[in-house]
Amino acid sequence: MTRRMQWIYAWLLLTPAMVMLFAFTHFPAITTIINSFFSTPRGRRPTKFVGLQNYEELMADPTFWKVLVNNLWYAMATIPASIGISLLMAIWVNDKLKGRSLVRMSFFAPTVLPLIAVANIWLFFYTPGFGLIDQIRMGVFGLPENSWLGQQETVLICMMVVTIWKEAGFFMIFYLAALQAIPPSYKEAADIEGASRWTFFWKITWPLLMPTTLFVSINAVINSFRLVDHIFTMTGGGPDNASSLLLFYIYEVAFKYWQTSYAATLTVVMLALLSIIAIGQFFFMDRRVHYR
Prior knowledge:
Largest sheet: none
Distance between the termini: 43 Å
Order of helices and strands: HHHHHHHHHHHHH
Structural class: mainly alpha
Helix content: over 70%
Strand content: under 5%
Number of strands: 0
């Protein structure tokens, strides 16, 4: 087979995946960007070009700014916590540990649970008076019951806890695979040189885990901006949008208020924000890998 035929054969193999990728990823994204410059059709009134009017409305929308700030706080709390806990769990279950398989399964179990099931489990924990948390507070410490999901000060923190519990086990699998790929000879050489466990981790293990950390961190960022199920089941975005995040607000605007063009505008802003963060992560992590 000539080189030209090999190229043709390779492109033929890639074509089905490229068609699906374009049809379900690129085409919807392009359509969303175009729709953000048009008005929402109402009955017999067709859509019309409005330019930047939707973006001007977005800049003056106090709810948008509130859910954006909520999402940024949510991301800043859940991303490092999920990554840090998953790395600690991976290091622990990578060592020789009695019942290691059971521990690994226990850590990974929340990942395979449906999102709605997870939300209902944590609803049981957070229910005022009857929930597990309040039962412990009232029975052991004699404290009064508390509406964890009904207060603006605590509701977002409660959602963060659910997300960390759900995602840490998933990220642990990637770190565990990366740890097992490190040659044992590195550890043997470090032991011969008298390096401590912390020195070995910081100078050898952590730099080798940087590609995995890049992959995990990008996934964590995406996950922090795509939460809908837990909010829909547990809080409905309340109280007073204190637990509403950007994608949930987009869902409400599009399917509750039926303002599809404004929802497209919000989606464009979210995609732009995710792209900037992902590109920044890539260059930051890539520079650290080359530096080390």
